[in-house]
């Protein structure tokens, strides 16, 4: 008996050891194969490159939990976002209760950890998203019926205990709107049991730096955001009570208490807001100019009162009402390192949103006042009846000696001097403004800047010697503007009308201004943003700034200005222009250029045209230009895009005149989209020399004439067109190295060409052309004596840098030679034509019947596919509704995905059937054409 027990114990012990060994060895043995297979499958199925340094699978790290972790996982975009790092993790780990995997309805996920996350979302100017990396699936019509998603009969449920995100860097960019956002050093923790009917849920979020900008305006310049929430969640009853909750922005903290309920399709809120700190310093931290590295040392005084309440129902058009009030009483702040302070700070702000009657909402800034080193700034404002008849009232007064600001605020390398005087009052109602009853409105005051000096604001020092604006209900008069920035200077005067309609009634701000300048250097004023490019490199993204960076023009949509300009020198990118004179009209989101003349490219130019930026993602360009005596080499250096499309221009020397009419689409950064360029015009020149061009080098070698390798083209007048970016030269006559000839052809966007040249070669320059003549006459079996001059036809195709050149006898001479055999050929042609016509009709009729059958069968299969997908989605929702709100919410996305995938498959069935039908007809037509 004892011996049996001993054997049993040995067997059990051996089994345990075996299980332990398998738990250790199996992940080690199979990990490389699993890792290789997972990476290969992901790269095959996604339009992105997936990289995984290591995979950790363990049964012991959290026993009885299964631990799975991906180390250094990266997802890098392919075209059209090649180089963008869409997603990266130092570690993505999941810990699952191993025992619950046997019951799909109660899977328990102990923890999900995302460590060192880097994510980058990018929407380009054409609306393409870099996270669309799942290509449409491909399947044959016969197999597609089996690819329709089907629901599983089993019920699934996942209980998540903890979600943790550590040290994340999240970025988003939309080129069409100019929006950029970034959250740096983000930590997030969610704890609770979401599978229970009632649960305590805790949330913790910390963002060390939050940036947000749109249209070139920065709204969040690097805020520190912290959020802590503890919620008593009645998941079954859909009620959530808040306790110990706070939201902090920089040093300003809000506490909120109350509850939110979701009965039916409504949302009921009753939440109060307060601040635990009543010192002014917490509010001061929200001011970017004040909140800096030395903010902790700032001395403050004064009290703060803040209160808010959100209460009501969100259902249909009704929203909860909200009341917020903020008061600051006789506050001050002072930096210990600076000699003066800001004091007498008083704020009285009240805002109310009426959820039931939104037009009863109001905003009232009863008082805002501050003295900066003795310089007073005061503001009052109010807005009432914002929907039916917006009424605004405001007063602004300021008297600033800007040099004293450095005594109050750390300007961080910036220097300001000069004086600012503002005294402005406005009171107006929209209905009065729309009816032009300006006698009922008030807009009165002036703004005057004098002897302003600003260093460190732009890349160059700025000087505003004088700026005077006078306000009245009818107009704002710019009496004078005298300003300098670097070596740029400007003088401007004029007036702006309809300021109140623009402010209140969606009216258009109109103006008439004159501008003169001795020099405008836009390269100096707006240098490339090197810091932004470095930031992109640091995050691992390859962003072409020149092509994708949006320039927001939305503020200009309701502006109509007419400029009469005179600029002695203009510098923009590579363009150097002198004596720029013309009229510019901005209105209706369009910029019109009228008779703009200048001297440039060692010649002169006159331009008229229109830039249309009514569309947010693509701008339209229409230009008519006359260029006289411009230098080709200078043009190639200035407009590098021309050399990219037409490399030959870099090998040319001479002067040309051009008449051009052009239409194109522009990106938001106003870069031409080459495949949208359409133009026509003509080019003239007395002489153009060409050196080291592959085309003419090959022509000279084939003909055996070195003069053609580096030719000079004389007396040129060529008409050209550009259609969808393809440049076509109509055949034009010229002398090529002294030889009379014609040139014509096309140059494509892919740097390929299809050109032809015809020349009449005298006996002294025949070269290899005589060999071609002899080969032709010998092939035809006739004897024709060689003429004193031989016309040749030269064709060039393929890449511009290495074209394939072919030489033949010109068509006229070939005709003379072939006339000897023409009569023999004619007899056969007529007999064959009759048989060919009949055979063509038979081929096309048969093909049409086959194509019609393909389309009909595909439609039947597609209709069946859509019906099955909808049935599966309905089944999934019916099952989910039995398991509560969370299951229903989770199932909605799955049901929508089922319908979407079913429709996608059905559409593909029909699309591919039509393609096959077209292919059948195309093959039939090709077969019929061969019978000619």
From TrEMBL:
- Describe the location of the AsmA domain by residue ranges: 1-179
Instruction: Look up the domain of life of the source.
Output: Bacteria
Write out the coiled-coil annotation as residue ranges.
822-879
- Could you give one GO CC term from the UniProt record? plasma membrane
Alphabetical UniProt keywords: Coiled coil, Membrane, Transmembrane, Transmembrane helix
Give the residue spans that cross the bilayer: 7-30
One GO process term, biological-process aspect: regulation of protein targeting to membrane
InterPro entries tied to this protein: AsmA (IPR007844), AsmA-related (IPR052894)
| Protein name per the record | AsmA domain-containing protein
């Amino acid at each position: 008996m004892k011996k049996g027990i001993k054997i049993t114990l040995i067997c059990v012990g051996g089994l345990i050891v075996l299980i332990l060994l398998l738990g250790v060895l199996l992940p080690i043995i199979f990990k490389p194969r699993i890792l290789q297979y997972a990476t290969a499958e992901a790269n095959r199925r996604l339009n992105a490159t997936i990289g995984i340094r290591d995979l950790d699978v363990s049964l012991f790290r959290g026993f009885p939990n299964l631990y799975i972790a991906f180390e250094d996982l990266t997802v890098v975009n392919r075209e059209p976002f090649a180089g963008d790092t869409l997603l990266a993790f130092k570690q993505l780990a999941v810990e699952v209760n191993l025992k619950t995997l046997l019951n799909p309805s109660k899977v328990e996920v102990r923890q999900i950890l995302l460590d060192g996350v880097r994510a980058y979302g990018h929407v380009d100017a054409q609306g393409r998203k870099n996270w669309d990396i799942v290509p449409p699936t491909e399947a044959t019509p016969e197999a597609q019926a089996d690819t329709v998603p089907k629901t599983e009969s089993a019920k699934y449920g996942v209980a998540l205990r903890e979600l943790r995100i550590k040290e994340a860097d999240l970025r988003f960019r939309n080129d069409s709107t100019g929006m950029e956002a970034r959250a740096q050093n983000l930590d997030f923790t969610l704890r609770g049991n979401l599978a229970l009917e009632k649960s305590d849920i805790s949330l913790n979020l910390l963002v060390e730096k939050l940036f947000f900008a749109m249209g070139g305006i920065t709204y969040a310049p690097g805020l520190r955001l912290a959020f802590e929430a503890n919620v008593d969640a009645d998941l079954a009853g859909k009620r959530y009570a808040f306790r110990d909750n706070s939201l902090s922005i920089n040093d300003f903290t809000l506490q909120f208490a109350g509850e939110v309920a979701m009965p039916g399709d409504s949302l009921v809120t009753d939440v109060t807001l307060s601040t635990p700190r009543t010192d002014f310093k917490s509010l001061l931290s929200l001011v970017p100019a004040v909140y800096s590295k030395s903010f902790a040392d700032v001395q403050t005084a004064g009290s703060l009162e803040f209160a808010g309440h959100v209460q009501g129902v969100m259902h249909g058009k009704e929203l909860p009402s909200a009341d917020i009030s903020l008061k600051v009483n006789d506050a001050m702040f002072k930096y210990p390192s600076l000699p003066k302070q800001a004091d007498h700070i008083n704020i009285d702000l009240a805002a109310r949103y009426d959820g039931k009657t939104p037009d009863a909402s109001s905003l009232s800034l009863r008082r805002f006042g501050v003295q900066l080193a003795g310089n007073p700034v005061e503001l009052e404002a109010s807005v009432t009846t914002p929907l039916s008849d917006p009424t605004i009232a405001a007063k602004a007064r300021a008297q600033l000696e800007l040099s004293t600001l450095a005594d109050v605020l750390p300007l961080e390398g910036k220097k300001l001097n000069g004086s600012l005087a503002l005294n402005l009052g406005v009171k107006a109602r929209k209905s009065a403004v729309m009816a032009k009853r300006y006698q009922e409105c008030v807009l009165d005051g002036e703004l005057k800047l004098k002897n302003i000096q600003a260093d460190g604001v732009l890349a160059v020092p700025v000087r505003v010697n004088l700026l005077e604006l006078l306000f009245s209900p009818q107009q704002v008069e710019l009496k004078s503007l005298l300003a300098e920035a670097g070596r740029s200077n400007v003088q401007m005067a004029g007036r702006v009308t309809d300021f109140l309609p623009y402010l209140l009634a969606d009216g258009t701000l109109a103006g008439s201004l004159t501008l003169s300048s001795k020099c405008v250097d836009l390269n100096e004023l707006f240098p490339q943003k090197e810091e932004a490019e470095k930031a992109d490199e640091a995050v691992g993204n390859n962003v072409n700034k020149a092509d994708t960076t949006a320039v927001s023009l939305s503020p200009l949509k309701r502006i109509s200005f007419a400029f009469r300009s005179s600029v002695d020198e203009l510098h923009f990118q590579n363009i150097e222009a002198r004596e720029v004179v013309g009229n510019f009209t901005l209105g209706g989101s369009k910029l019109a250029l009228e008779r703009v003349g200048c001297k440039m490219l060692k010649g002169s130019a006159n331009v008229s045209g229109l830039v249309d930026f009514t569309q947010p993602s693509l701008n339209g360009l229409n230009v008519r230009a006359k260029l006289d005596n411009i230098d080709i080499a200078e043009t190639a250096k200035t407009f590098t895009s021309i050399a990219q499309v037409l490399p030959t221009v870099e090998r040319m020397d001479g002067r040309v005149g051009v008449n051009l009419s052009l239409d194109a689409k522009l990106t938001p950064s106003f870069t031409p989209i080459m495949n949208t360029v359409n133009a026509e015009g003509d080019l003239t020149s007395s002489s153009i020399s060409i050196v080291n061009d592959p085309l003419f080098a090959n022509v000279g070698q084939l003909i055996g004439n070195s003069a053609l390798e580096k030719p000079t083209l004389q007396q040129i007048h060529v008409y050209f067109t550009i259609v969808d970016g393809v440049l076509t030269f109509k055949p034009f006559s010229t002398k090529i190295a002294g030889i009379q000839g014609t040139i014509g052809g096309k140059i494509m966007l892919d740097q390929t060409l299809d050109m032809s040249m015809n020349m009449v070669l005298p006996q002294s320059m025949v070269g290899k052309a005589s060999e071609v003549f002899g080969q032709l006459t010998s092939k035809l079996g006739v004897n024709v004596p060689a003429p004193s001059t031989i016309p040749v036809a030269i064709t060039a195709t393929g890449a511009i840098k290495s074209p394939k050149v072919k030489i033949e006898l010109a068509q006229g001479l070939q005709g003379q030679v072939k006339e000897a055999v023409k009569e023999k050929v004619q007899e056969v042609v007529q007999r064959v034509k009759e048989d060919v016509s009949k055979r063509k009709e038979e081929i096309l009729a048969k093909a049409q019947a086959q194509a019609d059958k393909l389309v009909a069968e595909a439609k039947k299969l597609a209709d069946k596919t859509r019906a099955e997908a909808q049935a599966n989605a309905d089944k999934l929702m019916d099952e989910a509704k039995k398991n509560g709100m969370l299951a229903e919410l989770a199932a909605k996305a799955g049901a929508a995905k089922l319908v979407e995938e079913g429709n996608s498959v059905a559409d593909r069935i029909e699309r591919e059937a039509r393609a096959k039908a077209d292919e059948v007809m195309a093959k039939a037509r090709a077969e019929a054409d061969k019978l000619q």
